[in-house]
Design goal:
CATH topology of the largest domain: Rossmann fold
Number of helices: 20
Number of strands: 17
Organism: Oceanobacillus caeni
Shape: flat
Strand order of the largest sheet: 2-1-6-5-4-3
Keywords: Aromatic hydrocarbons catabolism, ATP-binding, Nucleotide-binding, Transcription, Transcription regulation
Number of domains: 4
CATH superfamily of the largest domain: P-loop containing nucleotide triphosphate hydrolases
Radius of gyration: 29 Å
Protein name: HTH-type transcriptional regulatory protein TyrR
CATH architecture of the largest domain: 3-Layer(aba) Sandwich
Strand content: 15-25%
Helix content: 40-55%
Structural class: alpha/beta
Amino acid sequence: MIEKNIEIEQIYFLKILNSLDDAIYITDKTGKTLWMNEINKKIFESHKSRMIGKSVAELENEGVFNPSIIKKVIETGKTITKVQTLVNGEKYMTTGHLILSDDGDIEYVVAHGRNMNKIASSAPQLELGEINALLQRYIQEFRNLNKHNLLNKNGTTFVGQSQSFVRLAEIIETVASVDTTVLITGETGVGKNIVAQQIHNLSERHDKPFIHVNCASIPKTLIESELFGYSKGAFTGANTGGKVGLIQLAESGTLFLDEIGELPLQLQSKLLQLLQNKTYKPIGALQTKNANIRIIAATNRDLEMMIDEGTFRRDLFYRLNVLPITILPLRERKEDIFPLLQFYLNTFNTRHKKNRFFTMEAIEILQNYTWPGNIRELENFVEQLVVMVKQDEISLSDLPERFHKAETENKDLHLQLQGDTLPEILDNVERDIIKEAYKQHKSTRKTAQFLGIPQSTFMRRLKKYGIDTKTN
């Protein structure tokens, strides 16, 4: 099992760093800026939009900070502590430290800085050793974050850091340890096939076949012969030697029935027999065959609704739903968007021999987007950006209009929901509607008519909300 304390810490790690008054700055092994916490963003307010992706050597030359502690750490290969002067004139006691891989290679460099005025006013004064101890803690957490937010077994990549991801990882490990049927549900693109593969990879059947069958992609007239196979001369036009079905190909391994809700009703009874007895009969065969397989099914459909409609067998549903797993959509686990963006950015940079990077503003919009196509949409979109963007920096202007529109709608909703109680929220919504309507119609009579209320009522609303028609 993944250690529980590490899992919980990785969920809140970036939030913790962002809440600190100390400055945290992270680069790759070459000194290219990868991330900085919120206090750094405030310090470098006028420069932050162009710092991500830029080398610390360039930023030092531009006078953003002097000297560059990270640059000196990379040059010397040692931990260094110096007083650093920043672009706003403030001085920070900054320690730079290498983060090494298990093989001893440099992976990242982290700088931790504390304002000299705060150090001077500390009582008792903070010792340099305490700063270094604190930095060591950050470094360990950063390594843990990178170690555990990417579960990679036998080539299956599974990325995330949210609490629901941690819980899902736990469920997968628990389910993989037994040999019972699993039903995975979730929206299109959430990664149901990856979860199925992960269960197989962690199971005792990991070195046996994993057969993925998409029930929606096989014509209904062929799916029975594809799954169960057929014997010699079973029907006109059949292969003279018969056909081995996918069930037999999965022998001793895992049969993954994706989009199980698309399985024809007349075929569901044969699948039920397979689940109940672990036996099946190829088309035209006289005898049944034994099947030593584990079945994992997945669907984005509401099978219980299909039962009520008469398109899915109730007894089959109960047989499939022994160990249910539900994967939440990305909009309900936004903490996973950042590691997914970084993972696919690195993947496609390597594949297409590019060096793209996101600006912090672009990342913020992408993290707030609802991703209706979930991980599949995110993956395809990142590859599109890596290939199509002309420069290495992927900024706000490179994002399609739907992202900007969604961001505006989110901000509008946020403004509307300001207030502690429902009446306060409703008042804010009404005030905004009245102001916008008056701005369009320019007179109280026309605005009241547009809103469908008496002019006297409209005038009372103006007075209630303190709206000055002379300035609107």
